[in-house]
Write a structure and sequence with these properties.
- Helix content is 73%, strand content 0%.
- It is mostly helical.
- It starts with a helix and ends with a helix.
- The protein has one domain.
- The protein is elongated and about 50 Å long.
Length: 66
């Protein structure tokens, strides 16, 4: 992997992480009512859903009702 490939990979990872974090924040702000803004078959949709699901499960694990 040369320098340019590394820069591109880091940039892509940042973008993917950012979308995943958007999903987490959406759950915190709107809960289950949050709507994924990305196209259904896109990588971005999946990343957002994973972040959303992670936060939903994280919150339910620390809920005093469990």
């Amino acid at each position: 992997m040369d320098y340019q490939d590394l820069v591109a990979a880091i940039s892509e990872a940042r973008a993917e992480t950012s979308i995943w974090i958007e999903g987490r924040k959406a759950f915190r702000r709107r809960g289950a009512q949050a709507i994924n803004p990305y196209g259904l078959r896109s990588l971005e949709y999946q990343l957002w859903q994973e972040g959303f699901g992670y936060e939903r499960h994280r919150i339910s694990d620390i809920s005093p009702l469990n």
